[in-house]
Structures are given as structure tokens and as C-alpha cells.
Amino acid sequence: MLPTHRPRRNRKSQVIRDMVQETRLTAHDFIYPLFLTEGQNKTEEIKSMPGIVRFTADRIIDEIGQCIELGVKAFAPFPNINDALKDRLARESANPDGLYLKTVADIKRQFPDVVLMTDVAMDPYSSDGHDGVVDAESGEILNDATLEILGQMALAQARAGADIIGPSDMMDGRVAWIRRVLDANAFQHVSIMSYTAKYASAFYGPFRDALASAPKKGDKKSYQMNPANRREALRELALDEAEGADMVMVKPALSYLDVIMDVKAHTHLPVTAYNVSGEYAMVKAAAQNGWLDGERTMLEVLLSIKRAGADAILTYFAKEAAAVLRRG
Ligand code: PBG
């Protein structure tokens, strides 16, 4: 019997395919993570992230200017801190004259309209390479002692001009804690995008190269989530909503599309996803070997993350993808 239903009719020409397309990427979808380093007028390559560099404060201004031209207007800076400035309590994280906060303030001065999402977690500043305080004897990560430090860090970032605070540490109760500190200091207008379901993932390797922030001992499994768990993401979501998060995030993205979809189905808040360093590195490595078409793969990855339910995507592809989308 011949088919009575022919879905191929909706695919028969480019114009029809465009007409019935369900998901579309635009430069507005992207938040671009940027790596900062000390010094002047230089960039440093990151071996495991081809095409991504660390920028000195002066060079980051040029980079942001170029991104704005392409329609990318939201950025998530991360600092590569000198080892000499790292300590157990991440004190450098609240230093208004340090690399990170000075650069954040500088960017906001030059580009008041861009959205800056600053990262709250101890790891870039911690001599232990952990997101929380490490108990010197037991090696345990101390949740409540960490909250104190995260609150101070968030406050210092708000003072520097952050639009969105992004707690990536996975300590319990940090969204409520940070909200209270911000509100008590007249920063009611500063948003919180919580890393709601952040998994203990192997895909963070290249990021840790970029910041030299890998744990000195142990792993992050006592605070980041087990990749095997899906329902647990909804528990974290309920808590972050109750604690006052404005936006929620799933991280990584590509191996967690089911989690993005679940979180989207259970919240009215905007959902973001972090297309992390290892996901970027995989595509770049395969493309460099000639094993994949890098550009098409990039767009397919980003599209799939949006199709799963992400309203915005943190991605190292932001600038490149925006340039491709502009070209059409
Ligand atoms: C740490 C942090 C990590 C990333 C963002 N913030 C790594 C980690 O948890 O060890 C990873 C992002 C990426 O891989 O692109 N607070």
C-alpha cells in the first residue's frame, strides 16, 4: 500500500523547511565565557581549547567590542589568578583592586549596556583548587564556612558592577545566602543565575587548564551532582526557586539534554545551559583532524541545546556562531 501520510512534503524545499523550522539560533541566545589574565596587551592560548585565549584587561575590551558588533552582548568572565595570590580562604576573590573585579568594573564603564555575569565559587582563588573551604585535617569541603566567603565575593562583584551573579559552587543554601547579602546592601536589582544542576563532569578538564584551577587533592563529587541522577536535578531546582534564583542552569549541556528538558518542564524561570569546555574541545579536535565539519557540528550542538529547552546558552562558540549566523 502506498503511504497516505507524507511528512516529506514539509521538507521539499528550503523555503518550506525554513517555514516549518521549530527552533532557531540567534546571537541573543549566547552568553560568552571569557578568560582573563594579568599583564598588558597580550593573549595566551589555551592548548585544549583551540580558538579560545586568555585576555589581558586591555585586550578584553577589544574582544567585547567585536562581539557586540556580532550581536553577542552577554559575557561571563573568569579569572586566571597568579598562584601567589591563592590561599585557603580565596581572599583575593573580594579584592576590588584585583584582576577580576577591576576588569569587571572597567568593562561596565566602557560598555554599560552589556550584561556581565560574574562567577561565584572559590576555585580560581583557592590554593586547594576547590569551590569551597577545605578542612585542613579531614579534607572535607565545609559548606557553611564557604557561604560566608561566597556572600562576600558576590557583594564585591555587585559593587564592581555585575548584572548577574552566577554561583557555580554547588554549596547548599548559597542562593538564599547571596540574595540576603545583596538585598541587605541595596543590590536588590542584581540577579542570580544559579548553577542549579551542575554535575561532577569530566567535561570541565579544559576549563581547569585555562584557569589552572584543578583540585590539588580529591575530586568535586561531594558537592557537584552524580551524572547518573536526573530526579535530583528537580530537587535542586525546587530549592533554587524557593531561595530566590532568577534563572537556573544545567551544566554540562550536551550529555544532559534530558535534564534540560526536565528542568524546563518544571519551572517558569528562564533556563540556561552551559555548553562546557570539554564539549567545545571535542568538536574542535574532531574538526582539526578533518573528521567532522566543525561549523555544521557547532550549529547542530547549539541548536540541540536550545531545542531541549535552553532559553540561553553559555558557550565558547558564541562569537564564532554569531559570525556564522550573521553570514547566513
Ligand atoms: C568552577 C567552574 C567550573 C566551570 C565553571 N565554573 C569547573 C569546575 O567545576 O571544576 C567549568 C566550565 C567549563 O568546563 O567550561 N566553579
3D architecture notes:
- The chain has eleven helices and twelve strands.
- With 328 residues, the protein is an alpha/beta fold.
- The chain has a single domain (25-327), classed as Alpha-Beta Barrel (TIM Barrel), CATH 3.20.20.70.
- The radius of gyration is 20 Å and the shape is globular.
- Helices cover 38% and strands 17% of the residues.
Task: Write a short abstract of this structure.
The chain has 328 residues and is of the alpha/beta class.
Primary descriptors:
eight-stranded parallel β-barrel, alpha/beta, 17% strand, 11 helices, two-stranded antiparallel sheet, globular, TIM Barrel
Total beta-strand segments: 12
Percentage beta strand: 15-25%
| Largest sheet, strands/sense/barrel | 8 strands, parallel, barrel
* Name of the level-1 CATH class: Alpha Beta
Gyration radius, rounded: 20 Å
Number of helices: 11
Rough outline:
globular
What is the arithmetic mean of pLDDT? 97
- The CATH architecture comes to Alpha-Beta Barrel
Structural class: alpha/beta
